[in-house]
Amino acid sequence: EVTGAVLMGAEPDVTVGPGTVASMPTGGVLPAGADAVVMVEYTAQAMPGTIEVVRPVAPGEGVVRADEDAAAGAELVPAGRPLRAQDLGMLAAAGVTEVAVHTRPRVTVLSTGDEVVPPGTAALRPGQVRDATAVALAALVADAGGEPVLGGIVPDDAGALESALRAALRTSDLIVISAGSSVGARDETAGVVGSLGPPGIWCHGLAIRPGKPTLLAECGDVPIIGLPGNPRSALVIFRLLGIPLVRLVGGCTAPPPEPAVRARLARDLASATGRLDVVQVRVQDGVATPLFGLSALLSVLTAADGFVVVPEEATGLDAGAEVEVTLYR
Question: What is the secondary structure of 261-273 as a DSSP string?
Fold first, then answer.
């Protein structure tokens, strides 16, 4: 017997006992005496005011407990990761409208080199190159949740670089130096960074291709990355090391996973033991085709769908080998 109805958004004023039911909408409050809900599709009207349940129903069926989504004292959203849409929905459902968050880390990007000129330079003189790397680095910083600050172009002068770095240290959570980390007569980065203060340079040179001359250092609590001058090398290294650092200084200890896909290599990939090789690839129909070119060529990156990492212990990968391709967003 149908003894009444539950209204949406209201406390039930009906009681269910043996041989009786109450109609209710999805999401309504279970009335007193009831311990299960059966979908209307599994009922039939026997006569006015009476229904027949045409399938078995067990206690608790069709019911969501008030504490089922989040028990008392449970953690609603873990710390250390970006807030996603579903996280915000969960917080809102619990009545939480404000949370403490980390500020976006301020990342200063400095370009170095007498030959480097602003991207807006209309006509290049012999020997000049437009600063393509800083713009791309700023985009990667923003994608990682940081606040990029373009510090401009610093000439090949140790005093000018030291002044620029000391000024950046006062306002930055991370400093990125584009070019100037290679071993050469005019490359002053290592010497200047080493003079900024402890703990100093952690390493100058990595067993990786491209990006071998990378410099990693720290002054006080501010990490410093010295990137190779070749644009592709700089962007590859920053994606592998810089983006995790941006997230880490911004409090993101559980970053979202990078999109990836499994594919088979279209050709052999040679490598040297003891060196990490990062190879750009184009992916089509489950096949990853390696893309090659000088480390100064940005066109290799723009043509790539992602990259494959050849591990240090490998001497190469054979054609047809299954690899994991980290995709560019």
Answer: EEEEESS-EE--T
For 97-116, the pLDDT digits (tens) are: 999 999 999 999 999 999 99
pLDDT at residue 186, rounded to an integer: 47
The span from the CA of 49 to the CA of 51, in Å, is 7
pLDDT in tens, 306-322: 999 999 998 899 999 99
Q: What pLDDT, on the 0 to 100 scale, is given for residue 185? A: 39
Tell me how far apart the alpha carbons of residues 151 and 108 are, in angstroms, rounded to a whole number: 6
0.70 surpassed by pTM: yes
Q: What is the pLDDT of residues 163-180, one digit of tens each?
A: 999 999 999 999 999 985
Whole-angstrom distance, CA of residue 132 vs CA of residue 110: 12
8 Å CB contact between 218 and 202 = yes
Q: Indicate if the alpha-carbon torsion angle 269, 271, 276, 279 is positive or negative.
A: negative
Kindly state the greatest CA–CA separation across the chain. Answer: 97
State the average pLDDT for the chain.
93
Q: Which two tokens stand for residue 97?
A: 């409208």
Task: Compute the distance between CA of residue 46 and CA of residue 29 in angstroms, rounded to an integer.
Answer: 26
Q: Report CA torsion sign: 294, 295, 297, 298.
A: positive
d(CA 267, CA 213): 28
CA distance linking residue 250 with residue 247, whole number of Å: 5
Give the Cα separation of 25 and 204 in Å (integer): 67
CA 267 to centroid of chain Cα atoms: 30
Say how many Å lie between the first and final Cα of the chain, rounded: 58
Q: Show the tokens assigned to 70.
A: 């989040």
For residue 4, the cross-strand partners are: 22
